[in-house]
Design goal:
Layout: H1 12-22, E1 28-32, E2 35-40, E3 42-50, E4 57-64, H2 71-76, E5 80-81, E6 92-95, H3 102-116, H4 119-128
Antiparallel strand pairs: 1-2, 2-3, 3-4, 4-6, 5-6
InterPro entries: YjbR-like_sf, YjbR/MT2646/Rv2570-like
Protein name: Phosphoribosylglycinamide formyltransferase
Pfam families: YjbR
């Protein structure tokens, strides 16, 4: 039995996040567990999810793989949370809002993307800069 869909395609936070994520080379979107996920072969970001150890849902959140060098600093920031399921693998989440720093969100996506993307794809991304 498939998971129920837990997002709306016209959600403005998802639209904005989708634009950023799909702007990374060879990125695809796939619905998994009822939520949009972004992948370059492997998953590097997800839209929405629950908070580990609670029943709190963050339906308008970016779940991402942080840069290992920055993870501890991010955990100390109250804006970030450890998500259910993927948090055990080092992932973090941040709630999105209209006043979010979208440059920061783009950097978080980029960091997650670089954790999983093949070298040739990272080279392609770096050649765009």
């Amino acid at each position: 039995m498939p998971h129920p869909i837990m997002f709306s395609d016209d959600d403005p936070m998802l639209v904005r996040l989708r634009t950023l994520a799909l702007g990374l080379p060879e990125t695809t979107e796939k619905i998994a567990h009822g939520r949009p996920t972004f992948r370059c072969g492997k998953m590097f970001a997800m839209y929405g999810g629950g908070e580990k150890g609670t029943k709190v849902r963050h339906d308008q959140a970016l779940l991402f793989i942080p840069d290992p060098a920055e993870r501890e600093a991010l955990v100390q920031d109250d804006r970030f949370f450890v998500p259910a399921y993927v948090g055990a693998y080092g992932w973090l989440g941040i709630d999105l809002a209209a006043d979010s720093d979208w440059d920061e969100i783009a950097e978080l996506l980029d960091a997650g993307f670089r954790q999983i993307a093949p070298k040739r794809v990272i080279n392609e991304l770096d050649s765009r800069i």
